[in-house]
Amino acid sequence: MRPAAETDRNAEDPRAHELDIATALASTDPERAIASVDWLEASIAADRDARAFTAWGQSTVIDENTRDPVIGAGLFGALHRYAGIEATWPVGNAGLIHCYGYLLSLAATPYGLKRERWLTSDLARAAGLPDDALTPWRPGPTLLSRAAELMTVALHDAAPHLDVPVPIADRIVTSRIGILHSAGMSAVAYSVAGRLITAFPMTAPPERIRADLVAELPRLRWNAVLSALGHPHAVS
Predict the structure, then answer these.
(1) Facing residues of 200 across strands?
(2) Which of 36-40, 127-131, 223-227 comes out lowest in average pLDDT?
(3) 102-114 burial by CB neighbour count: b if 16+ within 10 A, else e?
(4) How many C-beta atoms lie closer than 10 Å to residue 217's C-beta?
(5) Confidence of residue 11 (pLDDT cuts 50, 70, 90)
(6) Other CB atoms closer than 10 Å to residue 118's CB: what's the count?
(7) Which uninterrupted H or E stretch holds 106?
(8) 12 has pLDDT over 90
């Protein structure tokens, strides 16, 4: 299933340019890269102080399609240190990775760059929100908190959703896929064991997305992992 196409990123926005410079720096000096973008550093600190990361589950940075990391080990470690989270490469906090890690990622995937979900209006439109609802540098609540609010709506018991029991070792874990639809696009939200994992836009209608998911064997999706499946190498 392909997500929505990249569309309306405004490369002329000086804040987008600032983020591009930080992204280029992140592979060699991740601490400096994060500190160079005031709103990014402040957002991570605000989410840390609000304990907002606790609503999120765990994710690997190894992309399930390319089998390559979407961010490097240095940036992975720096982000988790800024967030005050203990993590072991390549498994970390899904919100931190999928929101702020993706913003600083240039790894190519079959569906484009991970960061584009936050740098275009596709996901916001698909959820029926204003175009700038998920703009990372928008004043007010952080990107992570705005993404979590969207996902909470999509994953609510009263909203249309698909619950998928996933067998993991000797237990069954429930994953949930919520799909909002607006402006001819779908906003997909995903949680595992009640913890938020990720959200992204797709051009397919909800009924097609659900049918494709039901037709496949149940499994953890979209780079989600459980703590029991962590990696033995420590963050440096």
Answers:
(1) 188
(2) 223-227
(3) bbbbebeeebebb
(4) 7
(5) low
(6) 24
(7) none
(8) no
Q: Give which of 54, 132, 53 is closest to 100, Cα–Cα.
A: 53
- Please report the DSSP string for 141-184 in residue order: S-HHHHHHHHHHHHHSTTS-EEEEEEEETTEEEEEEEEEEEETT
Tokens at 12, concatenated: 């002329």
Q: Which helix (H) or strand (E) segment is 46 a member of?
A: helix 38-49
pLDDT (tens digit per residue) in 121-159: 999 999 999 999 999 999 999 999 999 999 999 999 999
When the pLDDT of each residue in the chain is averaged and rounded to a whole number, the result is: 91
**C-alpha distances out from residue 146 to 118, 153, 207, Å:** 11, 11, 26
pLDDT for 74-101, tens place per residue? 999 999 999 999 999 999 999 999 999 9
pTM of the model: 0.91
Do the Cβ atoms of 84 and 125 come closer than 8 Å? no
- DSSP-derived 3-state class of residue 225: strand
Burial of 135 (0-12, 13-18, 19+ CB in 10 A): buried
Q: Is the dihedral of CA 100, 235, 38, 20 positive or negative?
A: negative
Mean pLDDT confidence for 115-124: 96
Distances 193 to 6, 118, 169, 175 between C-alpha atoms, Å = 30, 25, 15, 6
d(CA 78, CA 76): 6
